[in-house]
TrEMBL record:
The gene is priA. This is Replication restart protein PriA. Zn(2+) 2 binds at C454, C457, C472, C475. HAMAP family: PriA. One of its GO terms (molecular function) is hydrolase activity. The lineage of its organism: Bacteria, Pseudomonadati, Pseudomonadota, Gammaproteobacteria, Methylococcales.
Length: 739
């Protein structure tokens, strides 16, 4: 007969960062009082052969698993939960919405140091304070040691512990005296959290123009309540100035501000502008910081010792002691979408977070995403418009350059070359944009037509002459550049197509007297090199700036007056319905780099499709008009935001397994589908093979978000029962942005 389980036995449900859709049961640790087991604390638990850091979700009386088979929590890592109930609620929501395991979602909220189980303790320094004995003793009792007497008096007058800096300020040679007082046990050592010193601001607030003032007033009027503002303004229209004036008012209420940016390279620029403006402690969080620096920044927001955090996507979940405002700049930028593991949209989750916290959120951009414009139309977001460039900057002029039948030299038409020459003669800078790095995307044999393909991917190898190599941009495979065709041994290998490296060489020949700077992932890989290049450009130590999308983002090049997109056509023909929107945003963003100061800029688009409706609408009527047309097209095709999608991606080493698995998934879906959700596929992924893995996908689309999500819930419950699921890796992407 089995003994009935004692009612006092409790089971802890732990969220562990592993890709399984469930919580794990553990027994409470023997040596810990159960009152310490508060939901939200981190715990260290044995898992498989190792230990993992998890989060305690709840305590239950029963487990499905017999108690004797349960392991105990090894260590309780936090005395108090680090995340507030609100934050936990948000993470639960995100786990449900994205159908992603709670443990992995929770891990995203913590900085790496805390994920690894480190103590939640920020940067500390030594400081000194009176012992009990020291508090009682009269300084006169130290009459024969006047230095010690004076130092004791100093401690007795001070209300806080004193650190080395404070003691040095009092007297230069304080160490000996301190040692004497410590030997007498009058003073003891303690630890003091290092709190970021608020900067001393030097920049005055500018006088806002009427549109800016309207935006500032509207946002500030919504303080203390949930509201989403879409702040639309071209580059240079003064959005950052609006942010700063709103932040100023939020700071006056002693509330905190979370600012999210798409790129780490933009963080230092903005941080510097903020430091010149605010006398408040500012921290930043991005991948170039050390684990400890990020931990400190996180804890300072959590404890309320810092007021402003600037960070990238991963800073979204930083706990805020006194939340006041969220700002998300360049809201259209696709880097706000995490594309691996827990695939979430930082923009969408930030809006939900603001709603939970009852605070306003500002989404800023020159080129709003179609989703956000739709939300404005539905009156869920409020549009604030800054129509003109602030200050004296003038709008750039656009020109569609028809290159059909024109002489063209390595991607540069004669007309463009002469425009570049004219600009350089005026001592102004030129910016050339081509979204393809390397020398050329294809190496082909002139004798037999052989093309160098990646063995592991469905892709061509890209020529990198500088390193004398062929590289696959999808899996990293590389080899030295062949001199002879591997198929027919001919020496006639040709470079087909253009990359930034090739344009750089052409420019060096055409403009030998000028300095060319190339900015792409190959030239900026080393830490700090992008910053160096940017400084060089702003010093005027570069005449032609050539680069990939890296250039389109936010950087300020005041002396650039000519910007050219060398190849817009390749963006016009894509199977992904997002591509028109992305291309339009890219064009406007690149244009935003030209003529930001008092000089008028010119933007040239080389194309063989000068009558393409997208280009014509965009250039003759502007981004808003383009967006209206694009939204209308989406409405007619019932594409997002007029429907909701989820993409099931599958890959495996075996060529057949993904399709077999997805066929089984489709059968399950047909059985449980109440009817309205479309199940499209399975089809091979746009890149059917990558890094040796065969890839397939299945798209689900519904006009009813609720219906789609309940279908996904039921599917996930069943998917692990499908026998073929053991032979593949699958992941679900809710609201996918690349199909
Ligand atoms: P955005 O963030 O939209 O690109 P910024 O806020 O950086 O625009 O402003 C662009 C430039 O215009 C900056 O140099 C800024 O100092 C200046 N500026 C912004 N607002 C004003 C204003 N109200 N008066 C004068 N100059 C302004
Ligand atoms: Zn050949
Ligand atoms: Zn490859």
């Amino acid at each position: 007969m089995t003994k009935p389980q004692s009612a006092s036995v409790k089971v802890c449900k732990i969220a562990i960062p592993v890709p399984l859709h469930r919580l794990f049961d553990y027994l409470p640790p023997d040596d810990v009082d159960s009152s310490q087991l508060k939901p939200g604390i981190r715990v260290s638990v044995p898992f498989g052969k190792s230990c993992k850091t998890g989060v305690l979700i709840e305590i239950c009386r029963h487990s499905e698993i017999p108690n004797r088979r349960l392991k105990a929590i090894e260590k309780v890592l936090d005395a108090q939960p680090l995340l507030s109930q609100q934050d936990m609620r948000l993470l639960h929501w995100a786990s449900r919405y994205y159908h992603h395991p709670l443990g992995e979602v929770m891990a995203t909220a913590f900085p790496v140091a805390l994920r690894k189980g480190k103590a939640a303790q920020g940067q500390h320094e030594k400081a000194y304070c009176l012992s009990e004995k020291g508090e009682l003793v009269q300084p006169e009792q130290l009459q024969r040691a006047p230095k010690q007497q004076a130092m004791l008096a100093l401690f007795q007058q001070s209300s806080t512990p004193l650190n080395a800096a404070a003691l040095s300020a009092w007297q230069r040679n304080w160490r000996g005296t301190l040692k004497a007082l410590r030997d007498k046990e009058l003073v003891t050592e303690t630890r003091l959290a290092v709190i970021p010193a608020p900067p001393t601001p030097a920049q005055p607030t500018l006088k806002a123009n009427p549109q800016q003032q309207q935006a500032i007033d509207d946002i500030c009027a919504a303080r203390g309540e949930f509201a989403v503002f879409l702040l639309e303004g071209v580059t240079g229209s003064g959005k950052t100035e609006v942010y700063m004036q709103v932040i100023d008012q939020v700071l006056q209420q002693d509330l905190q501000i979370l600012v999210l940016l798409p790129e780490i390279t933009l963080t230092p620029q903005l941080e510097q502008r903020f430091r010149q403006r605010f006398a408040a402690p500012i921290v930043s969080s991005h991948s170039k910081l050390t684990d400890n620096e990020r931990l400190n920044a996180w804890l300072q927001m959590q404890q309320g010792t810092a007021s402003i955090m600037l960070g990238t996507r991963s800073a979204l979940f930083t706990p805020l002691k006194n939340p006041g405002l969220i700002i998300l700049d360049e809201e259209h930028d696709s880097s706000f979408k995490q594309q691996e593991g827990f695939r979430f949209s930082a923009r969408d989750v930030a809006v939900v977070r603001a709603r939970n916290l009852h605070i306003p959120i500002v989404l800023g951009t020159a080129t709003p995403s179609l989703e956000s414009l739709y939300n404005v139309k539905q009156k869920r977001y409020r549009l604030l418009h800054l129509p003109k460039r602030a200050g004296n900057a003038i709008e750039p002029k656009f020109q569609l350059l028809d290159i059909r039948n024109k002489k063209i030299q390595d991607g540069l038409s004669d007309l463009l070359i002469s425009e570049i020459r004219k600009t350089l003669e005026k001592q102004e800078q030129v910016l050339l944009f081509l979204n393809r790095r390397g020398y050329a995307p294809v190496q082909m044999c002139h004798s037999c037509g052989y093309v160098s393909r990646c063995r592991r991917c469905d892709a061509n190898m890209v020529i990198h002459y500088d390193e004398n190599r062929l590289r696959c941009h999808h899996c990293g495979a590389e080899q030295s550049l062949p001199r002879q065709c591997p198929a027919c041994q001919s020496g006639e290998l040709r470079s087909i197509g253009l990359g930034t490296e090739r344009i750089e060489k052409t420019l060096a020949e055409l403009f030998a007297a000028n300095k060319v700077v190339r900015l792409d992932r190959d030239t900026t890989q080393r830490k700090g090199s992008l910053e160096n290049y940017l400084q060089r450009i702003n010093r005027g130590d570069a005449d032609i700036i050539l680069g990939t999308q890296m250039l389109a983002k936010g950087h300020h090049f005041p002396n650039v007056t000519l910007a050219a997109l060398l190849d817009v056509d390749s963006g016009l023909f894509s199977t992904d319905f997002h591509s028109a929107e992305k291309l339009a945003q890219m064009i406007v963003q690149v244009a935003g780099r030209a003529g930001r100061a008092e000089k008028q800029g010119k933007v040239i688009l080389q194309t063989r499709q000068p009558d393409h409706p997208l280009l014509v609408t965009l250039l003759s009527k502007g981004y808003q008009a383009f967006a209206r047309t694009a939204l209308e097209e989406r409405r007619l095709a019932l594409l997002p935001p007029f429907s909701h999608q989820a993409l099931l991606r599958v890959h495996a080493m075996n060529a057949e397994a993904p399709q077999v698995f997805l066929n089984a998934v489709k059968n399950v879906l047909t059985a449980i589908n109440p009817g309205k959700t479309l199940v499209l596929g399975p089809v091979p992924a746009p890149m059917a093979k990558r890094a040796g893995q065969f890839r397939f996908q299945l798209l689900l689309q519904s006009e009813q978000r609720k219906e789609l999500h309940s279908l996904l819930d039921r599917l996930i419950a069943e998917i692990e029962q499908i026998p073929e699921s053991k032979k593949v890796r699958w992941s679900l992407d809710v609201d996918p942005v690349d199909l």
